[in-house]
Amino acid sequence: MYLHREFVVEPLQRMYARPELFTVQDPWSECRAALTTVVHEFTHLAVPRHHDPAAGAVVSMLLWPLEEGVTEVYSRARLDDIADSVLPSDLAAGIKQVRCSHEYPDWEPAARAFAI
User: Fold this and answer.
1) Which of 71, 95, 70, 74 has its CA nearest to residue 85?
2) Of 26, 60, 71, 78, whose CB neighbour count within 10 A is largest?
3) What is 63-79 written as a DSSP string?
4) pLDDT in tens, 52-111
5) 46: which DSSP letter?
């Protein structure tokens, strides 16, 4: 998995290196967005052990917007719980205090409506 250095890796590295410098919302927003990206991308990879990605290749392109929307909705819905599970409590608290914009504003509402 490749994660964008500037927008994902570096904000998380700064958060771990110097969390005391994060006294305003903007750096925490960057970190929340970065962690959301990590969770989102990992969710794409979370499949059953014997899954054959080639088997659904044709269908996947047709369902790609739905899959992206569902993955994003899931990632955002679970992010605070995941932060509590994987981060030290002070860093999780910083992440949980902010919200960030949605990457898929057109697909997330459709994915939510489909799921309900």
Assistant:
1) 95
2) 71
3) HHHHHHHHHHHHHHHHH
4) 766 655 556 677 777 888 888 888 889 999 999 999 998 999 999 988 776 667 777 777
5) -
Tokens of 57: 């290749």
What's the token pair of residue 38? 């990590």
d(CA 106, CA 65): 9
- Give 78-85 contacts, CB < 8 A, sequence gap 24+: 78/39, 79/32, 79/35, 79/36, 79/39, 82/35, 82/39, 83/35
pTM of the predicted protein model: 0.79
Q: What is the pLDDT of residue 71?
A: 85
Task: Look at the chain and count its residues.
Answer: 116
Q: What is the largest CA-CA distance in the chain?
A: 48
**Residue corresponding to tokens 């504003």:** 105
60: tokens are 């996947």
Tokens of 1: 């998995």
- CA separation for the pair 76, 33 (Å, rounded): 10
